[in-house]
Amino acid sequence: MLVDTHCHIEGDRFDDDRAEVLARARAAGVKAMVNVGCDLPSSRRSLDLARVHPDIFAAVGVHPHEAKDAAAGFDDELVRLCQDPRCVAVGECGLDYHYDLSPRDVQRDVFARQIAAARRAKKPLVLHVRNGEKDGPAFAEALDILRAEGARDVGGVFHCFTGTVDEARAGLDLGFIISFPGVVTFKNNGQLAEVAKLVPADRYVVETDAPYMAPVPCRGKRNEPAFVAHTAAFVADVRGTPLPQMLDETGRNAARLFGLDLL
């Protein structure tokens, strides 16, 4: 069962052909898509999309890039949005010390408040964590915040994981799932191939992060949910797992993680 566990097709880059994008995804065998908000407006649009399409589900959250603009009471609004049955997670949220588009102290505060919101709503977390190039230990700090805020109670997924083997193990030890994006198919994919080999069969999923970072052989194009099939095939090959088995594993993992009735 092919599931794109992270996409952003509510955005304006899909306004001209969203119906065709969804048709291509379904033709490629994608059974479900989780559309993820980056602020309150995009979170509401994600829910609107999920209410119309039975194979789309929504996550609601504030991206670390947008943390500086989080209004007072944003976390209460996230909890309210989580009451919608089409909402399956809180996020994406976390720390991004690569671009530093929001002050780091603000990122940390907004992240902690979203973990608390997820616990209140009893929803898993969709995490965005990216280290800075020189002085940005975002992953280590994110783990500290997750532990301090009791994130193990709700669990979740490290979306678009591009970290090291040690970081993957630390995330797994905390009870989280690893999500492989199209980056894993790139020639220069860091330690992702090694991570793909070591992650347990019940602790990984795949995603597009559409419209960003399309996998080989679509690299350079606008990413879309249909392309998750390429990432899935690559990960199956790296793991030495037959593709049908890999699709069964990741589909079951996604269904369990987000509480999806897909099986």
Structure description:
The chain is of the alpha/beta class and 263 residues long. It has one domain: Alpha-Beta Barrel (TIM Barrel). Helices cover 40% and strands 17% of the residues. An 8-stranded parallel beta sheet has the order 1-2-3-4-5-6-7-8. Helix 2 packs parallel to helix 3, helix 3 packs parallel to helix 4 and helix 8 packs across helix 9. The longest helix is centred in the middle third of the chain and has 18 residues. The radius of gyration is 17 Å and the shape is globular.
Protein topology:
Blueprint: E1 2-7, H1 18-27, E2 30-36, H2 40-52, E3 56-60, H3 74-81, E4 87-96, H4 104-121, E5 125-130, H5 138-148, E6 156-158, H6 165-173, E7 177-180, H7 192-198, E8 204-206, H8 228-239, H9 243-258
Helix pairs in contact: 2-3, 3-4, 8-9
Please supply descriptive tags for the structure shown above:
263 residues, alpha/beta, TIM Barrel, eight-stranded parallel sheet, 9 helices, 8 strands, globular
Count of the separate structural domains = 1
- The succession of helices and strands, N to C, reads EHEHEHEHEHEHEHEHH
What proportion of the residues is helical, as a percent range? 25-40%
Architecture (CATH level 2) name: Alpha-Beta Barrel
Global morphology: globular
Task: Note poorly predicted spans.
Answer: none
